[in-house]
Amino acid sequence: QKEVEQDPGPLSVPEGAIVSLNCTYSNSAFQYFMWYRQYSRKGPELLMYTYSSGNKEDGSFTAQVDKSSKYISLFIRDSQPSDSATYLCAMSAYLTGADGLTFGKGTHLIIQP
Amino acid sequence: GAGVSQSPSNKVTEKGKDVELRCDPISGHTALYWYRQSLGQGLEFLIYFQGNSAPDKSGLPSDRFSAERTGGSVSTLTIQRTQQEDSAVYLCASSPDSLNTEAFFGQGTRLTVV
User: Fold this and answer.
1) Of A30, A51, A83, B43, which has the fewest Cβ atoms less than 10 A away?
2) How confident is the model at residue A97 (pLDDT cuts 50, 70, 90)?
3) Beta carbons within 10 angstroms of residue B81's beta carbon
4) Is pLDDT above 70 for A87?
5) Could you tell me which chain A residue has the CA closest to the CA of B97?
6) In the predicted structure, residue B39 carries a pLDDT above the cut 90
7) In sequence order, what DSSP letters do the residues of A6-62 get, joined into one string?
């Protein structure tokens, strides 16, 4: 079992839909959860991070963490074709340090105009 | 520059040759990370630098891989005697104060070994 599982998709939804992207993980030590967006042939772009359980909202993005279920989500409201990209979840047990981030494989999202 | 800069963007090399990949982090960021992204795989953590020091090199895939950082800034990842399985996108990230929640990535170097 991989430490972080993420459905690779593709996930195709119509413009304006609410998108739900999810990751599950097995390491209960993870406390910091990040979402990245990666366009084709570009580097990952940090969208937001959440600490421990709870919700966090930033613009059209909402991140949710449920540590009891080891399940995290990213919601995109009023999705636009420009949101079409691969979305990567990443996590870490520590705020700082040498272990780097553990990533999911990414979900390929397509927003249809 | 404003972001993490990596060069070259693309590199095609023959099997058995050595390659050197460069990363120029965001100014003032003390931490620097190298990752590898293979087709269909997630990002694989390779190595972390705090300043010029890499406390743990166990994430490097083999002894053909080495990395250094000088002046607390530019880093190079060197792959000796390249193999076809080394083909991947090599990504560099930097963060202030080694914050895992603020790691910013470059655009990557796409390495193809033929």
Assistant:
1) A51
2) confident
3) 11
4) yes
5) A96
6) no
7) -----EEEETT--EEEEEEE--TT--EEEEEEE-TTS--EEEEEEESSEEEEETTEE
Sequence length of chain A is 113
Q: How confident is the model at residue A46 (pLDDT cuts 50, 70, 90)?
A: very high
Phi, psi of A5 (to 5 degrees): -110, 135
How far apart CA A71 and CA A26 sit, in angstroms, is: 9
Q: Do A98 and B45 touch (CB under 8 A)?
A: no
State percent of chain B over pLDDT 70. 99
Q: Does A29 touch chain B (CB under 8 A)?
A: no
Q: What's the pLDDT band for A22 if we cut at 50, 70, 90?
A: very high
C-alpha distances (whole Å) from B102 to each of A9, A60, B37, B99 are 27, 20, 19, 6
Structure tokens at A34: 């990040």
